[in-house]
Specification:
Elements lengths: L2 H21 L7 H17 L24 E3 L6 E5 L2 H15 L5 E7 L2 E8 L2 E7 L6 E3 L2 H4 L15 E9 L2 H13 L8 H10 L3 H7 L2 E11 L6 H10 L8 E4 L2 H14 L7 E8 L14 E8 L5 E13 L5 E12 L2 E7 L3 H7 L6 E7 L3 E7 L24 E3 L5 E3 L5 H12 L11 H9 L16 H7 L5 H14 L4 H7 L7 H11 L2 H6 L2 H5 L6 H10 L3 H12 L22 E5 L7 H10 L3 E3 L8 E4 L4 H10 L3 E2 L1 H8 L6
Parallel strand pairs: 2-11, 19-20, 19-21, 21-22
Antiparallel strand pairs: 1-6, 3-9, 3-10, 4-5, 4-7, 7-8, 10-11, 12-13, 12-15, 13-14, 15-16, 17-18
Helix pairs in contact: 1-2, 11-12, 15-16
Amino acid sequence: MDPSKRAEELRALLNHHSDLYYNQDAPAISDQEYDGLMRELKALEKDHPDLITPDSPTQKVGGTAKRTAGVLVAHRVPMLSMQDLFTREDVDHFLDDCWEKLGEEISFLVETKIDGLSMALRYENGVLVTALTRGDGRTFGEDVTANAKVIGDVALTLKHPIEYLELRGEVYMTNEAFEAVNEKQTLLGKKPFANPRNCAAGTLRQLDAEVTRERGLSFFVFNVQDIRGKDLATHQEAYDFLTSCGVTVIPNRFVCQTRQEVWQAIEAIGEMRGSLPYDIDGAVIKVNNLALRQVLKDTAKNAGYQVAYKYPPERKETKLQTIELSVGRTGKITPTAIFDPVRLCGTTVSRCTLHNQDFITNLGICLGSTLLIEKSGEVIPKCVGVVAEKQPEGGEVYQIPMVCPVCGSPAVREDTADIKCVNLNCPAQLERLIGHFVGRGAMDIKGFGVVYVHDLIKLGYLTDVADIFTLFRHRETLIQKGIVGKEKNTDKLLAAIEKAKGNPPDRLLTGLGIANVGKSAAQALLNHFGTVDALAAATVDEMVEIDDIGPISAQAVYDYFRQPHNQEVFQKLKDAGVNMTQEVVVRDTQGLPLDGQTVVITGTLPGMSREEAAILIQENGGKVTGSVSKRTTFLLAGENGGSKLEKANTLGIPVLSLEELQEKLGKTSPQ
């Protein structure tokens, strides 16, 4: 690939993931994957210096200053990043460079690299006056003083006051505090945090200090940024002074003189990873002699006197106990490994998907196997292999039964790796299908929760999606039995169902769960054919003539409307008065910001649903499609972008975050 084009792709990708990590506290890839992309860009820029741009991720600190927690505060001392090292050779090169420039008598400090959020504290005459985040590292950070003051480890006054002191440290969460917060989130029906770092960062930036107090954040100081009124010779001496002042400084540190001592300290910290009460993501090696640090020049992004050694992904062994099988609304049978609980990246995990039979077979997974588990993107646990020498004696590779685990009907393996239940009336498929049908992305029937869906199917009121629109016939019984609540709640739900009858039929088509037919494809089909009857009568050839409708989607729609059961369902929907005619509105998009642009949306967007994002794009003249192709103008990506993000990167399609799209449109980011 052309180096210029690849460098542009890498810059866009790294900026996107930097925004997710630093600004949205929602990383979508692991640190190791990010580091690999950064190394590739650095190598390209080294070989082609003309490709270096001022805004390249290699030239700036990740993150921007936001106004979430308060006003912006100007930095007095830069809060720079550290160069990441991944091999012993890299560490030796840093040490050799230091000795060459500073002399052989210098010492180094090796300490744990806490996985949290940087914060600076400013003390005047021994009193804490300001706390701020790193922000963009050079210009501004966010004022988080009110939140900092309720963190137990933050000293509000110094036992030995001096004229001025600015400290830098890391806000983090212990594993115990993180688990307590997530337990409370679950009890309140809220989404748990992905990991301790995300929780700590989000907590520090929110506006309510009481929330910060309740969540039990912790804090370590790891650097003196500026000091007046006290002379210090070494970093270790600074730690001793700060400790005497009542400041909590980072523990688990080693003063080293030789190459061997530095590496032994790195290994010792690596051994601690599983036993510390908090997460670490590396070891920091820094020059201990403070005055000599000035000789080691900073780059635009990194401090010159220190580096971070990054350990390989955390991986644990655990014994597989059983494999659970679940059925999705398309009939796909998904195997999930249930194993002895292990702790990874600050959370305890005991299950992960095994995807399909090919995945199980390729890894040689048997019941009783010892699995190797790590976290993808430090969020999602995944199985990356088995321990060959610990395989059960005489064990056989697990085979997914060719029978539906829910209804007992036969299962089939199609052209893909998926095994599917063939029974369209399978309760598992029906429950998920109806849940999808009534959801916001489809018919959007307000108040129709999953519990109601489950109970109405179990009691025989719902046998297909069309039965939803005849529930009014059972009003008195529903009220009497309290299935959806008392009279008020029941009437409210029935009114929402009645209102949904008037929805445009592209929503109806979206809700049917036809393979490869999402909202954008449903809109394209109904906008072209005008009515559901016309679509039902269309041939595959007629459908593929429509932009963004491929042969696979067209065949799926064609097959759907030729199944007798589905024909009966549509007749019931017609008889119930559900709208079958699309009102095609041709909008004049000329002059709008996204006129003529084709956009694909993937992942979880911060503060906005995909449906809301699609409306935003369409209102600004763009077209939203369901799959990435060479015709895609850009991909709007949130957390966990998945295969669409991978394909966009492969094709060189620009990737925008929601914040970048809103800037492009001149909109305000959601708060």
